Hints:
With 604 residues, this protein is α+β, with helices and mostly antiparallel strands.
Amino acid sequence: xxxxxxxxxxxxxxxxxxxxxxxxxxxxxxxxxxxxxxxxxxxxxxxxxxxxxxxxxxxxxxxxxxxxxxxxxxxxxxxxxxxxxxxxxxxxxxxxxxxxxxxxxxxxxxxxxxxxxxxxxxxxxxxxxxxxxxxxxxxxxxxxxxxxxxxxxxxxxxxxxxxxxxxxxxxxxxxxxxxxxxxxxxxxxxxxxxxxxxxxxxxxxxxxxxxxxxxxxxxxxxxxxxxxxxxxxxxxxxxxxxxxxxxxxxxxxxxxxxxxxxxxxxxxxxxxxxxxxxxxxxxxxxxxxxxxxxxxxxxxxxxxxxxxxxxxxxxxxxxxxxxxxxxxxxxxxxxxxxxxxxxxxxxxxxxxxxxxxxxxxxxxxxxxxxxxxxxxxxxxxxxxxxxxxxxxxxxxxxxxxxxxxxxxxxxxxxxxxxxxxxxxxxxxxxxxxxxxxxxxxxxxxxxxxxxxxxxxxxxxxxxxxxxxxxxxxxxxxxxxxxxxxxxxxxxxxxxxxxxxxxxxxxxxxxxxxxxxxxxxxxxxxxxxxxxxxxxxxxxxxxxxxxxxxxxxxxxxxxxxxxxxxxxxxxxxxxxxxxxxxxxxxxxxxxxxxxxxxxxxxxxx
Length: 604
């Protein structure tokens, strides 16, 4: 069963050398069997080996003749088995049947059953035949590869696709800008504690000694003062004054046991309802509440951007696959074109045209790869590990398809503007700022009032009297009023004017923000409905383009159209698929915009 040598014009190595184009990496994507260049030599070697075995048969005894004959038979059988694994291309399946039907009278009977020499060019030699020793047994130097008992299921090997929820969870957990927004809670809490510090209990102490001079005396004192939330204060203290005091400092002298004193102060006009300390405290408490809608607004914004980047990444992956599919079509027909050229059924320039298509489509694949890499890099800014480090998603994590594109209900679309207004964190932020500004206005109006404070002071000396009159011993009670007012009060009136202007600014800003919120919702709904209509049209276009491409391929195989026309249909089908991918990605990105316009957080 030795196989004859192949014609030089149909040599596999020469044919593959003529059609070589593009990078090896991109060629590997095509499902084409490569023909080994040494197939002819290996067939000749098996023929020569069989001849050598026959020549040695005469030199060996009759007892070993049976073994040698069995060896020859086994060698030829193995050669026949290897030569029978013929790969029949799609072209051969269609054109051969048509040629048989149209040329039944001209073709001899054996043409339909016996393969032509050109078919042998597609024999696939996956590995060398096992080498045999003189006794016909396989050599030990080439052991057979062990077959695993059980294969691992594909589902256990393939990684789980990256979902949008995985990205959003990463944003909530470790996105730096959102983490920075979370820290604004601590900033506001610290400012609130700082404002509360104005009401801290104050401890005061003093010690004054004058050991030298005409008047020698010693004074020590300690006191505590507690500011009150009503604007006043409480006072309590102890002091001791010993020594020789001048007459004009007689009040600094106490009895031998010292003096205990207490007092209270209270504003009557200015700082009665509000003062600077309480204003700062009120605003700091409002600030702690204001940061929550600010954090919520940033969470909504970052979630929207992350969702858009995610769908851009998914769309880029599917677009890359579409370009690869278009390239594979050109690669799959390389052998068929060469076969038809050799049979005289096609012009030689068709091979060059197909190589041009391969080069152009490889360029498109490279461009699609770049877009996919760019989309993955952008997505890595939001997709992070728990430590906050960016993770570059591998293409193996790409989902195989888009999720269903479902529109919100009609009622939800009608209620969307009101829902967005009610849940708007931007409006809530402005409302908190208005409250803070109103506190500033109250404080400014308080500054216009004259200062009038009342004070009550009581003291009692204990211990031995320090003077014969005993004037330090009785219980003392003192009541006083203190008043102060700037005549022009320009600082207060200027503060009122500026604060009222800020309130008007915030009011106008709130009005515009509400109008912008409604407009954003309307635009998001419009984009959503438009994207849905595009999806319907794009899917119809894909179906029609695929049907046209199938018919065009049949006509190309029949010779009714050339490769240039077929390329138009293939490119049209791919373009339709790219439009469909872009439409679905735009719809899902419009959903992200719609949710952001309605101020929907990931956990709601």
